[in-house]
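Batch job 17 of 40 flagged for manual review because the log was empty.
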Amino acid sequence: HTVAFDLGEKEARTLGCIASNTGGRALAANDAASLRDALELVVVEAAKPMEVSAGPVEDLGPATVSGPAEVLAGAEFSVSWTGPENPGDYLTLVPKGAEDTDYGSVAYTRQGSPLVLTATEQPGQAEIRYVTGLSRTVLARADIRVIEAKVELQAPEEAIAGSPVQIDWKGPGNRGDYITIVPGGTPDGEYAAYQDAKENIAVKVAVPMNPGPAEVRYMSGREGRVLARKAIQIKEASVTLDGPSEAQAGSQVKVSWTGPNNRGDYVTIVMKGTPDGSYAGYQDTSFGPTLVITVPAQAGEAEMRYMSGAGGKVLARRALKLFSVGATLEAAEQAVAGSPVSITWTGPNNQGDYITIVKAGSPDSAYEQYADTSAGTTLSIRAPIEPGPAEIRYVGGQSRKVEARRPIEVVAAKIALEAVASAKAEETVTITWTGPDNNGDYLTIVPAQSPEGSYQSYAYTSYGPVLQVKVPSTPGRCEIRYVSGMGGKTLARAPIEVTP
């Protein structure tokens, strides 16, 4: 036996098939009470008789059960009852002639009258029983006939591999019933893509990806029996791809396609030899018959592929040769720390390509100030704030590979600060300065030994060569600082004494 607790319909079906194939039953438990009931029932057959010297006395008084004369296989139906209602008493439905200890669908009398039972999926004569919970004595029986459920399926004679087809059906629509389409020869009880059968509403189900004979099946939800089947022929999809025969590595190309356009289908471009099912740049076919796709960043033989959304099967291929384009960089041989550097470049200009300036020896993946090549062939990028050897780099947006390098020497900025030697607390002083005046540079006055990045009253250098800045309110040794707007580094300092 299996007890399914808090499982989805698909998982419960799988357990049901396992139980059925091994001669057991699958019981569903949706809450604590139903779990207890299921566990009680499972242990009945394994329980050994035991002598009870004293305990509750079981009432074997009269009982009645009343239900319909016949019911559709697998359907739920209502049963009225009377009886002693001992703890654990239950109603069950079993085939006619079954042993008194046998059970099928179960409902406990503590849940009241009437109760709902589910008919077996095998047609034939059956019996509703009132069974006591302690001794498993049958106190009442009523005959009922389980009749075969009539199921009709209407579907096209053939369909394109992987495509959805509409299936009209008539049938019981019992809880858990579903319609699936499987390759011909698939064992009963197995399923592929499926839709639940509810209220005689037509369903759409995707057919298998492999061409050949297949079968539409109406499956019972309780035991996974095939109640109806209809043959359908799966035809191979006609798919074409059209695009350039060669392209620049890392660039974007237009690819036109024809094909089934099933849900999840897409076109991708990968290097030749890439395993089927893998993908790189791609677009879903739902975006239209012509797609723009980014090709791999490396030069060599590549392949356009039309991929099925069901299973990732390659339905069409087209060869594409990728070639590389070199890059060049032109700029001054040196630049002032933090200042803008004009850089002229040539190169592939693929999506995401950029130019950056970093310290010499930095890893190829490192970057500081940068600009995308899409902004133009001449770019302005600020040099690092630290003096020393540096490098201008052209970096590929996809591969992050450095396509070109050019050295540049970063020299320290020449900065001068002139102001009074002392000032009263909170007095505003005049400061004359010279320096790089880069974007965001400013002057501030702070107590000496203040950490880097500290500031109090300040003024941006962009306001002019003569600035007014208020000194701190605490007397003592202080410092006028010229601070870079890039990283907050102090580039120059001059002492000033704050007096009371």
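Reviewer: the log was empty due to a logging misconfiguration, but the result itself is present. Residues 44-50 have pLDDT under 50 and may be disordered. Unflagging and moving on to job 18.
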